[in-house]
User: Which sequence fits this backbone?
């Protein structure tokens, strides 16, 4: 099963590369490039998971390879938390800049404005 090992290794390297790209986007606060990097990471991670599932039933990986897989899983969890935190910060910043508007008041031409009691 060397082909399975090589293809799995190749996909793991690609997942690690995409993790690095997302990390770089997060550190650089690159809002334009981050969605693309996240999409690429998701795509390669899903492919890797499918290949890994098939490979696990076919062969046993050594400890070093398993540690790399565990490290990838940890990095994915950390990135998910970082993105969630960043999302909250952005939403709060936007809310402070663009205060929520009150209810619209409609007035008949020539009439008085009616204000709703809150």
Assistant:
């Amino acid at each position: 099963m060397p082909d399975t090992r090589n293809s799995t290794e190749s996909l793991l390297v690609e997942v690690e590369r995409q993790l690095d790209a997302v990390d770089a986007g997060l550190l650089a606060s690159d809002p334009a490039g981050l969605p693309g990097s996240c999409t690429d990471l998701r795509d390669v991670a899903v492919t890797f998971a499918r290949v890994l599932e098939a490979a696990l039933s076919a062969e046993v990986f050594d400890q070093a390879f398993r540690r790399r897989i565990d490290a990838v899983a940890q990095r994915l969890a950390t990135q998910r938390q970082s993105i969630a935190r960043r999302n909250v910060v952005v939403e709060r910043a936007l809310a402070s800049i663009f205060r929520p508007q009150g209810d619209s008041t409609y007035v008949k031409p020539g009439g008085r404005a009616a204000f709703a009691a809150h």
